[in-house]
Amino acid sequence: xxxxxxxxxxxxxxxxxxxxxxxxxxxxxxxxxxxxxxxxxxxxxxxxxxxxxxxxxxxxxxxxxxxxxxxxxxxxx
Length: 77
Prior knowledge:
The chain has one domain (about 5-75). Helix content is about 55%, strand content about 5%. It has helices spanning about 5, 25-35, 45-55, 65-75, and strands at about 10, 20. The mean pLDDT is about 85.
C-alpha cells in the first residue's frame, strides 16, 4: 500500500477517513505474521497496534502538496 493510499485511511474509520480494519488485508497481514517463524509469537493486539501506527503516520511520509491533493480528491468523491 502506498503512503498516498494509506493517508486516506484510519484504522477505525474516524474523521471521515476510510476504515482500514474492515478490509480483508487487515486479516491477511495477521495471517502472514503468524506464518512467519520469526514473528509467529506476535498476538493480534500487537499486530493491530503496529498497523494502526503505520496507517496513522503514513501522511508523515508525504510532501505537503500531496496531502493537500489527497484531501481535495477525497472531498470531491
